[in-house]
Amino acid sequence: MVEYISQFLVDSGLTPLILTRGYAGGDEVKMLERHLRGGPVKIGVGANRAATAALFLDKYGCVDSSSLRSFFDLHERAQVWTISEKIGCIILDDGMQHWSLSRDLEIVMLNGLNPWGNGHLMPHGPLREPLLALERADVAVVHHVDLITKQSLRDIENMIQGFKKSIPIFYSKMVPKYLFDVKNARSHVALEALRCASVLCVSAIGSADAFVKSIEMTGAHYVDRLDFSDHHLFEAEVTNSIAILHVLFPICFTAKKLFLLNQIGFHQYHNDKCRMLKL
């Protein structure tokens, strides 16, 4: 979503600055850098996001807020904008709980497969804030709507609107695009390579269900899974075991882990059965 919003802003003629803490050796940061390479998007990493933002604003300057309205006039978006290096918008990656920074717009994203967890806050459950926090959200996005029933989606909508009736709700789904080699992130391998194959899905993300289901929908004959916790730091012992497995049958990783796997030398085991999935 951060990548999508960043590209939308660039298409609108604005240079965005993404602020992130940079968890787990920077796996998400490296993924964003890889996907946004060559564009005007800037990425600031640091626990103190206000200080990080200040450094970038001092270096590049910022767009006058009074001129921003024209950027979002849908009739004018067809024009070709000359993008300035000045920062026009700041995106906080995973920033709803970052109270030290004020914000103009808050977007809450929900996993449609498990939107409320067990109803408890961390560490007793997955919620980072009570559901009452929905009252201050400006936009809600429900993910994986293609994997849930219409009734489940209505229940989620009713819950959200029970806290804030006027909130706009958007919907998204995970769509596999292609596979690429661990050694070469720019390579493209058609999803047909998985058809009728036995595949092991390896992931270290918050919810792996949608990733696994997306592989199942490619027509793979048999799909198994190896789930690690979000931002898991792969160690050599684990990757050695995975390397042995990928000699036997194809393995799909979530692309988020490409940087960390290469850092610990996983690419040395690479053969044509080990791929990353671009979503």
Automatic annotation (TrEMBL):
InterPro entries: LpxK. One of its GO terms (molecular function) is lipid-A 4'-kinase activity. It holds the Pfam family LpxK. Pathway: Glycolipid biosynthesis; lipid IV(A) biosynthesis; lipid IV(A) from (3R)-3-hydroxytetradecanoyl-[acyl-carrier-protein] and UDP-N-acetyl-alpha-D-glucosamine: step 6/6. The keyword DNA-binding does not apply. GO terms for cellular component: membrane. One of its GO terms (biological process) is lipid A biosynthetic process. The keyword Lipid metabolism applies. Keywords: ATP-binding, Kinase, Lipid A biosynthesis, Lipid biosynthesis, Lipid metabolism, Nucleotide-binding, Transferase. This is tetraacyldisaccharide 4'-kinase. The lineage of its organism: Eukaryota, Viridiplantae, Streptophyta, Embryophyta, Tracheophyta.
